[in-house]
């Protein structure tokens, strides 16, 4: 972290993918929203949708089309059951995939959940100059993803490089 750079707050939307959660018991979405606000970012919007690839894709598509949303963090739907469809919903929207995100997330998760981490299909990428992160639905996984990966990469002060400093160049041709 470099204290010589000023923090640049960005607008982040949070999507909870769940067939059972409501705003009252959405602990994972709350962990992400509270984390980004505590870091100094702005919560662009928070939404809950059913684990349906078309509802997920519709919500994410609206945000990536909105120039005021810089990043989306989706929680839930990254497992291997028949209803888990977040990667299938989001991957077709991505212009570029950040393979390292899922790889490092699973490496970090291994410390807590051992071989169960292989069930995680956490993915990230960029679409229309909007960063998208898809993480498992547990509040522990959200905390790991935010605290150990996303928070620092969405902080302009992070050295040697971060995703915020690349934002002006994301639409280059």
UniProtKB/TrEMBL annotation:
Pfam families: MoCF_biosynth. Signal peptide: none annotated. GO terms for cellular component: cytosol. Coiled coil: none annotated. Pathway: Cofactor biosynthesis; molybdopterin biosynthesis. The keyword Cell cycle does not apply. It comes from the Bacteria. GO terms for biological process: Mo-molybdopterin cofactor biosynthetic process. SMART domains: MoCF_biosynth. Keywords: Molybdenum cofactor biosynthesis. CDD domains: MogA_MoaB. Belongs to the MoaB/Mog family. May be involved in the biosynthesis of molybdopterin. This is Molybdenum cofactor biosynthesis protein B. It comes from Methylomonas koyamae.
């Amino acid at each position: 972290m470099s204290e010589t750079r000023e923090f640049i707050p960005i607008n982040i939307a949070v999507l909870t993918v769940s067939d059972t959660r409501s705003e009252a018991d959405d602990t994972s979405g709350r962990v992400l929203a509270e984390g980004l606000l505590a870091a100094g970012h702005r919560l662009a919007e928070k939404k809950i949708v059913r684990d349906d690839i078309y509802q997920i894709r519709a919500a994410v598509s609206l945000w990536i089309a909105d120039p005021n949303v810089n990043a989306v963090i989706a929680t839930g739907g990254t497992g291997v059951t028949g209803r888990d469809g977040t990667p299938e919903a989001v991957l077709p929207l991505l212009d570029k995939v950040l393979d390292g995100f899922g790889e490092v997330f699973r490496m970090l998760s291994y410390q807590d959940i051992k071989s169960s981490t292989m069930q995680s299909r956490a993915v990230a990428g960029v679409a229309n100059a909007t960063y998208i992160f898809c993480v498992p639905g547990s509040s522990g996984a959200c905390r790991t993803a935010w605290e150990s990966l996303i928070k620092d990469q969405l902080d302009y002060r992070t050295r040697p490089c971060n995703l915020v400093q690349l934002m002006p160049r994301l639409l280059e041709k």
